[in-house]
């Protein structure tokens, strides 16, 4: 008897137990991978996973095993299923004794993605499976996570599933399991944005900088996959884009920063073409490397907009890495390199400037300060900059280019700027030490969208996450002492392939090195700092920061009863 393939979605199908003879039909159905949800040895007539694996691999299928005990699907099983689904090529054919476990795993995975139970029950029923009791049991478990928990109310709501949002969610979960927590974000994928400058330099691949959001949401946290329409702190609620309310007792706002590509006239029309690129976009970073690796002569222009921006060192990192490639390829003398910075200094912490200037001079870079990119003509390969003349008047000057790396102006997201949580400039208004909102005591902010005067970097968010987690729990009476943020941020300035000037600093430009000077002297280019950036920091990001493992970021707390100001 041939296998009965039940199509659940375009990427997933299930069936009862298969035999080696069924592999051919599974391949013919279009499947690219085979996933077994059944432990070996459940029945005497059951082929082992290893037997089927050998036949399946010979037929060209990827194969994985997520064994589940019948009737006992748990969260760990769903975690394992999620990890495997992320890895396998689609479509996937999954099987167990009857297909129920395979269907259940997929359904619970979809629930984590925010698919409503009603839709999941309808889909399962259409496939011949009744999962109403399974979902009801899981809902009871989730409801027990906190008193009074409803589908639209949580003890803590986190806006944003970027570096800051997921890190603080993980920090909270590492400290307590007693609260109902939801994280709101529409994005299906999560990016390791510090890696994009390395993609633009041909060091990393795109694939090394991206994972699905679902694979990173901490276990026990509800992901609401939706966009935020409005923040209403007076009503203790967040309105989603479709006007659905989500209520909270405490709110953490970490939505990241908005890249205003439309803030430069003509830019949107030419991005990714005519030699116009930016490492600030995932899909364009490879184009940067394409342009750099193919350029043999001509004019290369790099820009930096007014502050604040995320990773203020990234615009000049593109300069260094490009120039280093041209130097190594023997083309540097034939390429005219110019860096246009809307600010007045190369870097805001003076101790790092000498080393950086030495590289700019060594690469022959024409430095232009106080010049802001305002307009670009891609087909004409011309850019216009606004600046001041000797009399203080505003004028425009233009330059031609063969390639141009553009960094757009940046602001807080629109729903933040228009909310009561924003300061006059549109940023989340927090106390720079505690990161608690200045006017709403049950709100905290971290990451790029808040107004503390620190560098907007992933390293800063990594330091801020445990501080916000501690202080929120202290407010709940679940932690002792208020933690203080010292403004720490880090910018590994990739001055050449294999060397980095590791800038680490806090409020007021105070140097805050993580390592002794004999190991890494941040004021000088370092090979060890390059190894840190290339080999160590990516796994620290994925496996520590986003998992609640707080390596070298233990928050400093005031003593209970001490003045927290």
TrEMBL record:
- Stored InterPro entries: BLH_phosphatase-like, FAD/NAD-bd_sf, FAD/NAD-binding_dom, Prot-tyrosine_phosphatase-like, Sulphide_quinone_reductase
**Carries keyword Transit peptide?**
yes
Q: Which Pfam families match?
A: BLH_phosphatase, Pyr_redox_2
Could you state a single Gene Ontology molecular function term?
hydrolase activity
GO BP annotation list: sulfide oxidation, using sulfide:quinone oxidoreductase
Residues annotated as domain Beta-lactamase hydrolase-like protein phosphatase-like: 6-110
Q: Which cofactor does it need?
A: FAD
Keyword set, alphabetical order: FAD, Flavoprotein, Oxidoreductase, Quinone, Transit peptide
SUPFAM superfamilies membership: (Phosphotyrosine protein) phosphatases II, FAD/NAD(P)-binding domain
Question: Boundaries of each FAD/NAD(P)-binding domain copy?
Answer: 154-267
> Is-annotated flag, keyword Transit peptide?
yes
Q: Per its record, how is this protein called by name?
A: Oxidoreductase (Flavoprotein)
Q: Which organism is it from?
A: Pseudohaliea rubra DSM 19751
């Amino acid at each position: 008897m041939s296998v009965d393939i039940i199509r659940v979605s375009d990427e997933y199908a299930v069936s009862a137990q298969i035999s080696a003879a069924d592999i051919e039909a599974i391949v013919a159905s279009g499947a690219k991978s085979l996933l077994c949800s059944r432990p070996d040895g459940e029945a005497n007539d059951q082929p082992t996973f290893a037997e089927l694996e050998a036949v399946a691999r010979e037929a060209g299928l990827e194969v994985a095993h997520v064994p589940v005990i019948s009737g006992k699907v748990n969260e760990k099983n769903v975690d394992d299923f999620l990890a495997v689904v992320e890895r396998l090529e689609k479509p996937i054919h999954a099987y167990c004794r009857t297909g129920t476990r395979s269907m259940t795993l997929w359904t619970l995975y979809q629930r984590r993605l925010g698919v409503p139970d009603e839709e999941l029950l309808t889909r399962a029923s259409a496939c011949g499976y009744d999962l109403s009791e399974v979902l009801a049991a899981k809902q009871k478990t989730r409801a027990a996570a906190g008193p009074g928990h409803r589908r639209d109310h949580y003890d803590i709501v986190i806006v944003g599933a970027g570096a800051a949002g997921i890190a603080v969610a993980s920090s909270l979960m590492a400290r307590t399991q007693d609260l109902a927590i939801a994280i709101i974000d529409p994005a299906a994928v999560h990016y390791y944005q510090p890696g994009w400058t390395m993609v633009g330099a041909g060091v990393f691949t795109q694939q090394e900088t991206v994972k699905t959001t679902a694979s990173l949401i901490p276990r026990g946290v509800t992901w609401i996959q939706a966009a935020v329409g409005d923040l209403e702190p007076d009503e203790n609620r967040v309105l989603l884009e479709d006007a659905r309310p989500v209520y909270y007792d405490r709110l953490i706002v970490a939505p990241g920063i908005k890249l205003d590509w439309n803030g430069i006239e003509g830019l949107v029309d030419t991005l990714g073409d005519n030699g116009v690129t930016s490492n600030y976009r995932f899909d364009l970073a490879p184009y940067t490397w394409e342009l750099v690796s193919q350029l043999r002569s001509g004019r290369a222009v790099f820009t930096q907009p007014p502050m604040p921006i995320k990773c203020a060192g990234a615009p000049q990192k593109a300069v260094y890495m490009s120039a280093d490639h041209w130097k190594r390829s023997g083309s540097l003398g034939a390429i005219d390199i110019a860096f246009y910075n809307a600010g007045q200094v190369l870097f805001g912490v003076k101790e790092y400037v000498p080393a950086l200037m030495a590289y700019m001079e060594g690469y022959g870079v024409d430095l232009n300060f106080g010049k802001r990119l305002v307009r670009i003509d891609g087909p004409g390969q011309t850019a216009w900059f606004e600046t001041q003349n000797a009399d203080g008047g505003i004028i425009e000057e233009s330059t031609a280019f063969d390639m141009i790396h553009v960094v757009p102006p940046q602001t807080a997201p629109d729903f933040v700027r228009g909310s009561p949580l924003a300061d006059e400039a549109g940023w989340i208004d927090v106390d720079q030490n505690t990161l608690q909102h200045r006017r709403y005591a049950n709100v905290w902010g971290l990451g790029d969208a808040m107004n503390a005067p620190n560098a907007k970097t992933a390293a800063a968010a990594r330091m801020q996450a445990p501080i916000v987690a501690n202080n929120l729990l202290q407010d709940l009476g679940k932690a002792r002492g208020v933690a203080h943020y010292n403004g720490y941020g880090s910018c590994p300035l990739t001055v050449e392939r294999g060397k980095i000037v590791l800038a680490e600093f806090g409020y007021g430009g105070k140097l805050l090195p993580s390592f002794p000077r004999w190991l890494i002297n941040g004021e000088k280019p370092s090979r060890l700092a390059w190894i840190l950036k290339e080999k160590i920091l990516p796994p620290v990001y994925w496996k520590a920061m986003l998992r609640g493992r707080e390596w070298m970021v233990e928050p400093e707390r005031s003593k209970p009863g001490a003045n927290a100001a």
